[in-house]
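Suppose a colleague, Dr. K., hands you the sequence of a protein chain of 133 amino acids and asks what its three-dimensional shape might be. Before reaching for any lab equipment, you can write down a predicted structure in token form. Begin with the sequence itself:
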Amino acid sequence: MQLAFGRFDTRRSGRLDARELHAALQAVGLDASTGGASALVARYERGPGGGAAAVDLGAFSALVEQLRAMQLSASTAELAALRGELGAKERELEALRRELDAARAALGQSRRVPDDVRAALAVSEVLSQPLSL
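The predicted structure, expressed as tokens, is then:
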């Protein structure tokens, strides 16, 4: 944290202004421009009386921890949703497999020649051959 903080504290003031803060967060792999992250960063950017604030190393570290926790929570929720979708797709696939098996069975039965028809065809074939004396 200290390395990223020091790299973006361009004025060497021991504090990051809003522009430096966003650059430092991006450098540690955090996107502070979306949803709750944006609101959280905005709280750190506002100083007393609503004016612009500068974030010191302690506040920067706390902010990074909070943003990482938010990302982890979002990733966990996304993973749970994907698992749910996967389960639904697996059930759909199983239903399609059963449907395919039923279609194959029906096709196999319709192609099967009943024994009595088979016997009649055999007799017919024998009778259609010329007699050899």
